[in-house]
Amino acid sequence: MTSQDQQNPNPIASAELDYFQTNPAPKSLKQHLTLARAFIQQHAEEGRKVVLVTSGGTTVPLENQTVRYIDNFSAGTRGATSAEYFLEEGYAVIFLHRQFSLLPFSRHYSHNTRSFLDFMREDEDGRIVVDQEHQSDMIDVYRKYMAAKKDNLLLILSFVTITEYLWELREVAQLMQPLGPRAMFYLAAAVSDFFVPHDRMVEHKIQSSEEFSQQASTEGDEKRPAARTEGKSLIIDLEPVPKFLKALVDGWAPDAMIVSFKLETDPSILVKKAKYALDKYAHHLVIGNLLTTRKWEVVFVSAEEGTKWIRVPRGRRAKSLSGVESLVGQASGQIDEDSPSAHKFVGEPLVEIESLIIPEIAAMHERLLTAGSK
Ligand code: PAZ
C-alpha cells in the first residue's frame, strides 16, 4: 500500500465521489431516469434480459457555454447495429447514445451519402411511396422496428459530453441492479480518457485575440482554466477521467454481465491491451478492435474462453438475375488465426460483424446464467 492508499483505503470510491460532486449532472438526467425506471420494471416483470448498449463518442467541452469541444471519430455504427441484433436475441435494449449519432433501424437510411428521399418515388396518384428496388429491404427493417416499438423493447437515451455519459451510465446501472445477472452492459461508446473538470472550465468562448482574452491566473495555480490562450497559442491542459470501469463491476452493477471494448490502432498491442483491461476491470468479456479493421474482425478476450477472433467471411456479394442478393464465399464467420489479419480489407464487409458478435455474447450470457443458477 502506498501512503496515499493508507490515508484513503478506497481510491476508486473517493475519485468517484469527487467526480460526481464536482461535475454537475445533466439537466435531462431526471427525465431519462424516469423513463429508464419504468422500462426496467416492465422487462423485469416480464422476465426479459435487459442490455444497456452505449454508443458513439463523448465530447470534451472547453467552455461552459460551449462553442468549442474535443470530439472523436465514432459514428455509433457498432452500437446501433448491435442493438438490432440484441433485439433479435430477445433482449430489451436501453440504447444510450451520443445525440445525433446512428440509431438502430433508422441507421439504414441516415448518415449516408444518399438521402432517404432517394429511396422514394412519386406514384401515379401523386403519393410518395418506397421505390420498388428498396421495398423488400425496407419492409424488413420497418417490421423489426415496429415489433420493437409495439412491445416497448427499445429505450433511446442520449448524451453529448463525457460528464453526461458518466452520469447516465452510473445512474441507469444502479437502476438495473434489481435485474441481477439478467442485466448486461455492452460498452461500445468511444469514451474520452481526458477532460476539463467543471471548476477549471471558462464560462465564455475562449478569445483568440489577445486584446479580448481573459488573463490566465498566475503560473502554478492549479485552478487556472484548463483551456486558455497564452500569447497567440491555445493551451489545452486536460486531466484524466477517473477509471470508472471497475466501479461498474464493484459498485454500480455487481451482478451484471459486462462487455467492454478496447480500441487500438497498433495491431501489435491490441491483444495485450485487451488482456490488460480484462485483468484490471474484471469484466466478463473485452472485445478488442482496430480502428481500420473494426468492421471485419474483432478479438474476444475472456477468462472463460481466452482469446478468440471473430471475422466476417471473405467473399463478395452477388446479385441473381431476379435482383436477390446472396453471399459468395466462405460459410464460416471465423478463421483460426490468432493475430490481426495481415491482409487489407476493401469495400464493405460481406455481413455485419455484429451479426456474428451478438449471438456469441448472448450464448455466453446464457452460460453465465446457467452456471449462476446451479
Ligand atoms: O462507433 P463506431 O462503429 O464508428 O466505432 C466503434 C468503436 C470502435 C468506437 C467501438 O467498437 C469501440 O471500440 N469502443 C470502445 C472505444 C474505447 O476504447 O474507448
Structural topology:
Layout: H1 3-7, H2 11-22, H3 29-45, E1 50-55, E2 60-61, E3 69-70, H4 77-88, E4 92-98, E5 120-122, E6 128-130, H5 135-150, E7 154-159, H6 162-176, E8 183-187, E9 194-195, E10 227-230, E11 233-236, E12 239-240, H7 245-252, E13 257-264, H8 270-281, E14 285-290, E15 297-302, E16 306-311, E17 315-319, E18 325-329, H9 354-373
The site of ligand PAZ has 13 residues, from helix 4 and strand 13.
Number of helices: 9
Helix content: 25-40%
Given helix and strand content, the structural type is: alpha/beta
Q: What is the CATH superfamily of the domain at 11-113 and 143-209 and 225-255?
A: CoaB-like
Reading off the top of the CATH hierarchy, the class of the domain at 11-113 and 143-209 and 225-255 is best stated as: Alpha Beta
Query: Major sheet, described briefly?
Result: 8 strands, mixed
Strand order of the largest sheet: 7-4-1-8-13-14-15-16
Q: Give the mean pLDDT.
A: 89
Segments where pLDDT lies below 50 for 5+ residues?
320-324, 328-333
- CATH fold group of the domain at 11-113 and 143-209 and 225-255: Rossmann fold
What's the quaternary structure here? Answer: single chain
- Note the beta-strand portion: 15-25%
- Bound small molecules, which ones? ligand PAZ
**What string gives the helices and strands in order?**
HHHEEEHEEEHEHEEEEEHEHEEEEEH
Outline: globular
**End-to-end distance:** 37 Å
**Tally of DSSP β-strands:** 18
CATH architecture tag of the domain at 11-113 and 143-209 and 225-255:
3-Layer(aba) Sandwich
